[in-house]
Amino acid sequence: MGTISNAEGEIEIQRLPVNSEEHTFNGWTVKYTKSHILHSICRTSEKCKVKSEEQCLLCLYESQLELPHLPEMVFPNNRLILTHKTGAFIEFNALDALRQVCNGKEYIKVEVAYSETWKESRLPENLGQKIKPFDWTFSSDYRGTVHNSAVITPTEERINMEKLKEKEKILFYQELMLYEDELHDNGISSCTLKIRVMPSSFFVLLRFFLRVDNVMVRVNDTRVFHDFSTDYVLREYTNKECGVNELSLPLTVFGDPNLLSPHMPLRTAIYEKITFPATKLESTGSLEG
Ligand SMILES: [Zn+2]
């Protein structure tokens, strides 16, 4: 399909086609949508100002989030929705991931915790005095958006990672990027997800990865697992982070969170069980983060 351009020759992202696939496995519908990066200039500002329900995606993001600027690359149409046969669901999307960016507090945390190696010059140039401090690393502890009819409780049960390593047929696989920022050439901040569905289960890995060059690294992982023979979903969140000087590893390892993560100390872990309603929902309820 061709792209649609306006007079200035820029692609109008909202009119581009959205890739989408939907499959059903054991009573679960797995749907993803995938499309282009969020545009950086609002071309319908008059309409966006007046009618909030007709806002363009950029204006929606700017009005919903308290961030003075957005990551360089945001994928507003990249979403994954896992719908239970009752209509309740778990969803992953960029807007909700960015809502979880800890404004202000997290910025101070990075600066103070790694102050030995911290250089003021690392701050993005145009930030500083003009804008109040915010988390320019876009660190998110997003664990997915869960329909409010599902019940989330702490659990002792763990995802059997060894079983996931067993060779099993992959019925469905997809990777989605939610957002990414290169921190003004000072590193990388990215939020991505992968899903695979096998005959016995599905598994989602949502990963926030941060590397502030020569300063620190952070990996926030959310693993969502469902064994089709059970009536619940397991969700595990882990936060790993440390100063770069705490790890004596080859430089190339710092570019790959898969290689890096096993060497990083665990700071936080949250283990949850998500139970879905027993009967079909009458209508779609509201969401909780
Ligand atoms: Zn707009």
What topology does this entry show?
Layout lengths: L18 E7 L2 E7 L10 H6 L6 H8 L8 E2 L4 E5 L5 E5 H6 L5 H9 L31 E3 L3 E4 L6 H5 L6 E10 L5 E11 L3 E12 L3 E12 L4 E12 L13 H4 L5 E10 L11 E2 L1
Antiparallel strand pairs: 1-2, 2-4, 3-8, 4-5, 5-6, 6-14, 7-13, 8-9, 9-10, 10-11, 11-12, 12-13
Bound molecules: zinc ion.
Question: What characteristics describe this protein?
Answer:
289 residues; mainly beta; eight-stranded antiparallel beta sheet; six-stranded antiparallel beta sheet; 6 helices; globular; disordered N terminus; binds zinc ion
What does this structure look like?
The protein is mainly β and 289 residues long. The protein has one domain. Helices cover 13% and strands 35% of the residues. The protein contains six helices and 14 strands. It has helices at residues 45-50, 57-64, 94-99, 105-113, 161-165, 257-260; strands at 19-25, 28-34, 73-74, 79-83, 89-93, 145-147, 151-154, 172-181, 187-197, 201-212, 216-227, 232-243, 266-275, 287-288. It has an eight-stranded antiparallel beta sheet with strand order 3-8-9-10-11-12-13-7, with no helix packed on it. The longest helix has 9 residues, at 105-113. It is globular. The two termini are 35 Å apart. Residues 1-11 and 126-131 have low confidence and may be disordered. The structure holds zinc ion. Zinc ion binds next to α1 and α2.
